[in-house]
Description:
The protein is an all-alpha fold. The chain contains eight helices and no strands. The protein is flat, with a radius of gyration of 18 Å.
Amino acid sequence: MKSILALIEEKQKVYAQSPLFEFMKDQSIHPLKRLAFVPCSAPFILGFTDLCKYAFYQESTSSKIQLILNQHAYEDANHWKWFLEDMESLGFNCQLEMNDALFFYGMMKLKLHD
């Protein structure tokens, strides 16, 4: 277990030095410019609920790992709503007038898959 934790820590250090995180830490760039990619992440974030419901979650299982995965998948399946709130807080909704479209996208996906 210690070797796994050491590997995770090592990889986190490498990941923290990636160009994206270096860009995000650059205080000389206006915060909204650093976060300009956020609306582009909408398809992944809104689609993540499908992964949670249809790929990760398995209703009948005796596996302890699967039970833990089910718990996290259940919790994460509705995080897309927070994304819409974040879009509003960042001012991207009125700038791009996107939240209605993203909410509709999310609701339509729910209707199609429920």
